[in-house]
Amino acid sequence: MRLLLRAFVAALVLNVGVAWAGDFEDGLAACAQQKYPAALQKFKRAAAKGSAGAQFYLGVMHGLGEGVAPDPVAELGWYRLAAEQGLAVAQFNLGNAYSSGQGVAPDVAEAVRWYRRAAEQGFAAAQFAVGNACVSGRGAPQDLAEALAWYRMSAVQGYAPAQFNLGYLYDSGQGVSHDPAQAVHWYRLAAQQGDPDAQLGLGNAYRKGQGVEPDDAQAARWYALAAEQGLAVAQFNTGIAWARGQGVAQDSAEALRWFKMAAVQGHGSAQFHLGMSYFKGQGVAPDRVRAHLWLQLAAASGDKEAARQQALVVREMTPAQIEAAQRLASEWQARTARTPR
After folding, report:
1. In the chain, how many domains are there?
2. How many other C-beta atoms lie within 10 A of the C-beta of residue 184?
3. pTM for this one?
4. pLDDT tens-digit readout, 176-203
5. CATH code (residue 75)
6. In a domain, 310, yes or no
7. What number of other Cβ atoms are within 10 A of residue 105's Cβ?
């Protein structure tokens, strides 16, 4: 619900009415100086005269607790007043409220109704949200062709999540003919804005040569960019690149580092490769206890090869080492079970 709270200040200023322009502009100036009590009073005066922008900002301030105690119900009330006057960003935030159940009972159909009103005004984030509803069938009839249309309207405005989703539809052939070149086009636009999923998709395209000439160096580059943002599958793919010398110089220690980052996020294949690295001493001194730990965790996710390799590791371990490995695995599983994902 906090997305795009302040993104349209300039547009709001340009659309102020004569009756309340001064109060609204004074409120914006006070906000910029973090003089929130003064801003609150200015916005209230403008809102009472019908300023949708001031009503929206009062919603923001009640949501963030600026100059007033946080109050999701009051936040929603101000957004509603602005939304009913046609302010797209308020309509979008109202849709978010109904989607998340913040300040109101969750209602996905009502969320989509408000998203659609904002989307029809060209609000890119709302267009993306309507596209999502059309894909999932939550709050709107499932319709991939309509989803594609909304994603495209959002994507051409430069909205990275929509660019990625549009690329994914072309990549998977959902709602549109399979077109790897189009997938790469949209992935690239989103990836250049820092979208990690798009960076991963672009890395996959370069690795497989789908929609673009195969290029291991480019694949490794895009995987690394996504990996640095914490995307576990990209961290695993980056580890594989370093382990095999695909697009980068082969470096077992660097591979181990990336496998570990993905493994601690629960990525099963990364846990398997990390376990095997400890078993074989690749990039690290051999360590049967840690090899057993990570192979056991990978096996618990259903990896049959991990279970087989774990059995081989056990043959080379003492009872004390096995006990230590099982204790570490139990502690790990208990810790991650308490950690929200």
Report:
1. 1
2. 22
3. 0.88
4. 999 999 999 999 999 999 999 999 999 9
5. 1.25.40.10
6. no
7. 7
